[in-house]
């Protein structure tokens, strides 16, 4: 999907969620829409892994924004799947309605950064970071943020182990505030 | 008496940067993480008293510092890698670690009071803070440990235990030496201005309010043997600067158990 159509698509999803909330009934066909959006956010995440226009350290912020938006979408999908069994009907629709504008906003910043490329506005990374923080806080409040354990289970454990050890060395060896 | 603890960015960062993956047998943490535990325990236990305070500056800086640390490490690891699958795994694992730090940061922020401070208030105290640090830097520039040893240690010991004595003097004058080698940053001055401004506001409501500034930075906090900067801040602005674990001990003596 092109960027504009992703925003349109998110708007359609919001409209669907509104309908579900009003009807008081979850529509399980919505899961396919979550999958489609997730696939596009994944593509944007891959773009940030492989791009060459900006340093990896800047790219990481935008990759992380897509990673977090996908975490929330995955939790949303899990809850939609069991909404009928789990008395989460239409609760999941109401919770998702709260979070969709934030996902749209996070995507908008990340797509803007991709368009700017080498001329990346230096404030955009910080704005995106703050948005990601807001997304996580809101998602946690409405039960749409997976726990750290759930997140870890879906990760390559050997690589995570290596990363944690490297970061541990960094944290012990340096005063972080002097590193930036 | 009411006590308030203004948390410097480095304390919030130290308290938030740790990753615990029990299934993988890994625990990684910031070098000062353990020094922050007792202070956060007290703040959490007395959350209704709003002991722990921060400002927007501190919150934003903390988020940026943690992100930069993880992102810079990623850059070191992933630079030059051509295998897209491995690169994706490395990005992913850094994102997972970063998310855990973000979760800890959010937990910590949830027990802290974020206070508004106007730019005008910060600017009001900036000249005094700046002059204080400039004066101390002038003193620091003149500090010569070899001269101090020559003047205060007998000739006989000057040779035999010079190294040990030198180390003791270095510890004694740690704050001044830090200032001599690294001038205080503008952001640190602004943080002190924010703390001063908040203390004035609190004291309007309760004249007996006591303010601590918790930091792991020698530009604020003393070494074990004291420090000129912390003494001067206390004298001029009535703010007690110290390490988080030390402040936790002081709070306990005030009844915050």
State the largest interface. Answer: A-B, 49 and 51 residues
Major β-sheet of chain A, in short? none
Low-confidence stretches of chain A: 176-180
Q: How is the biggest beta sheet of chain B arranged?
A: 5 strands, parallel
How many distinct helices of chain B? 12
Determine Rg of chain B (CA atoms, Å): 21 Å
Structural class of chain B: alpha/beta
Runs of chain B with pLDDT <50, length 5+? Answer: none
Write the SSE topology:
The complex is a heterodimer of chains A (180) and B (257).
Chain A (H helix, E strand, L loop, with lengths): L2 H21 L6 H21 L5 H26 L9 H26 L5 H20 L6 H6 L3 H17 L2 H4 L1
Helix pairs in contact in A: 1-2, 1-4, 2-3, 2-4, 3-4, 3-5, 4-5
Chain B lengths: L2 E5 L1 H8 L1 E4 L4 E4 L3 H13 L6 E3 L1 H23 L5 H26 L3 E2 L4 H24 L2 H8 L2 H6 L1 H11 L1 H8 L4 H20 L4 E5 L13 H10 L1 E4 L1 H10 L4
Parallel strand pairs in B: 1-4, 1-6, 4-5, 6-7
Antiparallel strand pairs in B: 2-3
Describe the structure.
The complex is a heterodimer of chains A (about 180) and B (about 260). Chain A has about 180 residues and is mostly helical. Helices cover about 80% and strands about 0% of the residues of chain A. Chain A is built from eight helices and no strands. Chain B folds into two domains: about 100 residues, no CATH class; about 130 residues, no CATH class. Chain B has a five-stranded parallel beta sheet. In chain B, strands 2-3 form a two-stranded antiparallel sheet. Chain B is an alpha/beta fold. In chain B, strand 2 and strand 3 form a beta hairpin. Chain B is globular and about 65 Å long. At the A-B interface, helix 2, helix 3, helix 5, helix 6 and helix 7 of A face helix 1, strand 3, helix 3 and helix 4 of B.
């Amino acid at each position: 999907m092109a960027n504009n159509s992703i925003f349109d698509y998110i708007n359609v999803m919001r409209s669907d969620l509104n309908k579900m909330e009003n009807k008081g009934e979850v529509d399980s066909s919505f899961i396919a829409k979550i999958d489609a959006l997730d696939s596009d956010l994944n593509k944007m995440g891959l773009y940030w892994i492989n791009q060459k226009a900006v340093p990896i350290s800047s790219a990481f912020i935008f990759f992380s924004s897509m990673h977090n938006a996908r975490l929330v979408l995955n939790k949303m999908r899990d809850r939609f799947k069991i909404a009928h069994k789990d008395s989460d009907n239409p609760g999941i629709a109401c919770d998702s309605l709260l979070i969709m504008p934030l996902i749209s906003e996070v995507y908008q910043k990340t797509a803007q950064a991709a368009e700017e490329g080498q001329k990346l506005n230096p404030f955009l990374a910080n704005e995106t970071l703050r948005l990601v923080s807001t997304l996580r806080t809101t998602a946690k409040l409405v039960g749409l943020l997976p726990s750290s354990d759930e997140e870890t289970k879906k990760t390559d454990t050997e690589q995570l182990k290596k990363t944690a050890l490297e970061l541990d060395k960094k944290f012990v060896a340096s005063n972080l505030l002097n590193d930036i | 008496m009411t006590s308030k603890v203004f948390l410097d960015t480095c304390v919030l960062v130290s308290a938030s940067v740790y990753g615990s993956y029990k299934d993988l047998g890994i625990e990684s943490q910031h070098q000062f993480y353990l020094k922050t535990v007792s202070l956060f325990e007290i703040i959490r236990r007395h959350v209704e008293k709003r002991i722990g305070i921060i400002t927007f500056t501190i919150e934003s800086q903390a988020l940026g510092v943690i992100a930069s640390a993880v992102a810079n490490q990623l850059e070191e690891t992933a630079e030059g890698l051509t295998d897209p699958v491995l690169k994706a795994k490395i990005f992913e694992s850094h994102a997972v670690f970063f998310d855990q730090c973000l979760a800890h940061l959010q937990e910590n922020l949830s027990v802290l009071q974020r206070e508004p401070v106007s730019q005008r208030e910060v600017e009001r105290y900036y000249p005094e803070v700046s002059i204080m640090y400039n004066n101390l830097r002038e003193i620091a520039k003149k500090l010569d440990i070899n001269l101090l040893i020559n003047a205060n240690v007998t000739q006989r010991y000057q040779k035999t235990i010079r190294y040990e004595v030198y180390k003791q003097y270095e510890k004694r004058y740690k704050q001044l030496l830090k200032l001599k080698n690294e001038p205080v940053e503008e952001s640190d001055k602004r943080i002190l201005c924010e703390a001063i401004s908040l203390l004035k506001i609190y004291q309007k409501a309760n004249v007996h309010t006591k303010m601590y500034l918790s930091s792991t930075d020698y530009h604020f906090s003393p070494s074990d043997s004291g420090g000129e900067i912390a003494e001067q801040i206390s004298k001029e602005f009535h703010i007690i600067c110290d390490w988080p674990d030390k402040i936790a001990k002081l709070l306990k003596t005030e009844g915050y158990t």
